[in-house]
Design brief:
The complex is a heterodimer of chains A (618) and B (94). Chain A has 618 residues and is mainly α. Chain A has two domains: 9-415, Sodium/glucose cotransporter (Up-down Bundle); 524-616, Barwin-like endoglucanases. Chain A has helices at 9-30, 36-41, 48-59, 62-75, 90-103, 109-116, 119-152, 156-205, 208-214, 217-220, 234-252, 254-262, 266-301, 315-323, 327-364, 370-395, 401-425, 431-450, 452-456, 475-492, 514-519, 552-558, 598-604; strands at 530-533, 538-540, 547-549, 565-570, 580-585, 594-596, 612-616. In chain A, strands 1-7-4-5-3-6-2 form a seven-stranded mixed beta sheet. Chain A is globular. Chain B has 94 residues and is an all-alpha fold. Chain B is flat, with a radius of gyration of 16 Å. The chains are: A mainly alpha (618), B mainly alpha (94). Chain A binds chain B through residues 77, 81, 84-85, 87-92, 94-96, 208-209, 212, 217-218, 220-227, 234-235, 238, 242-243, 267, 270-271, 274-275, 277-279, 282, 425, 508-509, 511-512, and chain B through 1, 3, 5-7, 9-11, 13-14, 17-18, 21-22, 25-26, 28-29, 32-33, 38, 42, 45, 48-49, 52-53, 55-56, 59-60, 63-64, 66-68, 70, 72, 82, 85-86, 89-90, 93-94.
Chain lengths: 618, 94
């Protein structure tokens, strides 16, 4: 049952203003896109806090509000149980995967696979990656459709198409810089809105004690029952969401990879990731789930206000309609959910375009110009949005969004997760093993779909077999074991290579070579030294290269060598790196001032009346 | 009502596997970078990693105790841990 919520023109004014603001931001930042590197990676220059919040906004989509609030309504606090499992993988992510992709300048996961293995693995992973991203777009669209349906009263297909068109236009024009900045704002908005609805809900119920006492003990436990019921049990969700989903999101989600690559340095990417998981995610966990907890408390105390039979998928909007003290507040809460969708949808659309351009178009086109690549990127963004609409219609037939997302993750992610993990952490893992673990692994996955009882039951940990939706979550464990086993067995039966020179910098064990590869020369042990230069000392030359030349006094301070990498930024921290760029250190300047080339200035758009920070990198 | 399968069993399962994955990862990066390099150059990051694991585990631990003993005031401990973690990360991680 989905109750309808009445709205007036004030509601629509606020909602339309917000969406227009987001579109305007996209158009504003579009002027910074001069190349595909800008379009996809924002020029690799942003600060940790901007990247961290933007990663949060990418991870927390409207599907999160729909998924977690619905399970919060049905089962209580355990709706959040896998939200922080990412930390288990942090050592490998921060000191393995991030430096590998950053220093080796890996633009996409399929590109990594070609360099680590061969082009066959790249092609297989490109297909899976696009499927994965389009699935994410589809889930996001469906979730927002479900949440907005009680307000709009339109059929879900119309809502999905409308939202997809708006998001598609803005991402196609704005690119990564637009995404990072609007995501930051949207991240703040959605966290604030999530906490606001919690506060309003507690006030509506009459205080925290009433809220707490309205929930049963099982509602308040943070983890679900070990293996029942079949539609939400701990062990299945742990393997599907906590392990496969976490690894999939952090290691193979192209949108997240692009955030790492948009950071100004590896250290900033690491810091952003840590802050995201330990500081931003706990608030996000409460923000996305609490509408469900409040709904459960209202249903337990006043079933005449909120019926037990209310559709869990739209519980966020329904609760917002009940607890919001005014229509303006309600409009703000709904806008926040729209923000959540936009901020995850834009990232996934941009990421899909990156994969298509880097892994399908560029390898096959004959030296396409930057302008052509940029145009193809924009067109692809629009194309994947349209396909995403189709995926949303497909998922709509599944039932609950939580289960649809879970089943999708369980099937699509394990082969890629296996290839990435074994590829990074086991040098001997060969191309043949990667291909076979992908192909044979997929065969086993399909067999698991056809014969779930026979094949998955041994992994089921006692989870009940439901013929209509067999082992929605725990099949992730079966799929993972199948793919990893094939990879390990084939590798052990394959002759190991004589040396690993061809994969320098591409595995954890050869990571020391990464920084040197990134720089293209010996690493400078003085990296990290920073100087501040008044903008009045900057001279912009007519040279068309990417160089900065320092006078002797600054060369002595910074202890740089010709060819070293430099990071130059406006001193104002709150710009988050928007006015910054990387350049190579040229020979000592003959003048007293700092000389930067025309290209450096064009890229960074420095305000030369302001101080600049110059840092020696790598 | 026996709540073991709803509380401590999933907790033990999650953090046993979690410790295995996290510990294995920590061991691997120490081996790959070398003890001197990792501890010498990235000491604060490594300390933050271990602190993070303890912090994440303690959230579920405290929530479980709070639910089983009907003690919502324990959430203040989580809040204190959250503030300390936020301050430490923003102050010391560079």
């Amino acid at each position: 049952m989905t109750p309808e919520i009445a709205t007036s023109s004030l509601f629509w004014v606020i909602l339309v203003f917000y969406v227009s603001f987001v579109l305007g931001a996209g158009l504003f930042f579009a002027r910074n896109n001069q190349s595909t590197e800008d379009f996809f990676f924002g020029g690799r220059r942003f600060s940790w806090w901007l990247i961290g919040m933007s990663m949060l906004a990418t991870g927390v989509g409207s599907h999160s509000f729909a998924k977690y609030a619905s399970k919060g309504f049905e089962y209580g606090f355990s709706s959040t149980m896998t939200y922080m499992n990412d930390w288990f993988f942090m050592p490998l992510l921060l000191f393995g995967w991030i430096p590998i992709i950053y220093y080796m300048k890996v633009n996409s996961i399929p590109e990594y696979f070609e360099r680590r293995f061969n082009s066959t693995v790249r092609n297989l992973s490109t297909f899976t990656m696009i499927l994965y991203l389009i699935g994410y777009i589809g889930i996001g669209l469906l979730a927002l459709g479900s949440l907005l349906q009680p307000i709009l009263g339109w059929d879900i297909e119309t809502i999905i198409i409308t939202i997809a068109l708006i998001s598609g236009i803005y991402v196609s024009l704005g690119g990564q810089t637009a995404i990072i900045f609007t995501d930051f704002l949207q991240g703040v908005v959605l966290l604030f809105a999530g906490l606001l609805i919690f506060g309003l809900g507690i006030a509506y119920l009459g205080g925290f004690d009433i809220f707490w006492n309205a929930l049963s003990t099982t509602n308040k436990l943070p983890l679900a029952d070990f293996n029942s019921p079949p539609d939400f049990n701990f062990v299945g969700v742990f393997w599907q969401d906590g392990v496969v989903g976490s690894v999939g999101f952090a290691f193979m989600n192209q949108a997240v990879i692009m955030r790492f690559l948009s950071s100004r340095s590896v250290a900033h990417a690491r810091r952003a990731t840590m802050m995201n998981v330990l500081v931003f995610l706990p608030i996000a966990t409460i923000a996305v789930s609490n509408a469900g907890w409040v709904a459960r408390a209202i249903t337990n105390t006043s079933p005449e206000v909120l019926a037990e039979t209310t559709n869990p998928n739209s519980i966020f909007t329904v609760v917002a309609g009940i607890v919001a003290s005014s229509e303006a507040v309600f409009a703000f809460l709904v806008a926040a959910v729209v923000a959540a969708l936009m901020s995850s949808l834009d990232s996934q659309i941009n990421a899909s375009a990156a994969v298509v351009v880097n892994d399908i178009y560029t390898p096959r086109a004959k030296n396409p110009s930057e302008k052509t690549r940029l145009r193809v990127s924009m067109l692809t963004s629009a194309g994947v949005t349209i396909i995403g609409i189709g995926a949303a219609f497909l998922f709509a037939q599944y039932g609950t969004i939580y289960e649809a997302h879970g089943a999708f993750h369980s099937v699509v992610t394990p082969p890629m997760v296996t290839m990435i993990f074994l590829g990074i952490f086991w040098q001997r893992f060969s191309a043949q093993a990667a291909v076979l673990s992908f192909v044979l692994g997929s065969v086993f996955i399909v067999l698991g779909i056809i014969y779930p009882f026979e094949l998955i039951t041994p992994f089921a940990h006692g989870t009940e077999f439901v013929p209509e939706k067999p082992y929605s979550y725990i099949r992730a464990l079966y799929n993972l074991v199948a793919c990893v086993s094939i990879g390990v067995i084939v590798t052990l039966f394959t002759k190991p290579p004589k040396n690993y020179d061809h994969i320098k910098g591409l595995t954890l064990w050869t990571i020391k070579d990464g920084a040197e590869h990134f720089k293209g020369a010996k690493v400078n042990p003085n990296a990290g030294i920073t100087i501040t230069v008044p903008g009045s000392e900057i001279i912009v030359s007519e040279d068309e290269n990417n160089k900065i030349c320092l006078p002797q006094k600054y060369m002595d301070q910074i202890k740089g060598n010709v060819g070293d990498l430099m990071y130059i930024s406006d001193k104002r921290w709150y710009l988050g790196g928007l006015k910054s760029t990387h350049a190579n250190l040229g020979s000592v300047s003959k003048f007293d001032g700092v000389i930067i080339s025309k290209d450096v200035q064009r890229h960074a758009q420095f305000d030369l009346s302001r101080d600049l920070i110059i840092e020696l990198e790598v | 009502m026996d709540l073991f399968s709803h509380s401590w069993l999933p907790f033990l399962y999650q953090y046993s596997f979690g410790l295995l994955i996290f510990g294995g990862g920590l061991f691997a990066i120490f081996k790959a970078y070398g003890y001197e390099v990792l501890w010498g150059e990235y000491k604060t990051f490594v300390v933050a990693l271990v602190w993070g694991f303890i912090y994440v585990t303690s959230i579920h631990l405290i929530m479980t105790i709070a639910a089983l003993n009907n003690a919502p005031q324990l959430y203040f401990v989580i809040l204190a841990g959250y503030i300390i973690t936020g301050l430490l990360l923003s102050r010391y991680i560079r």
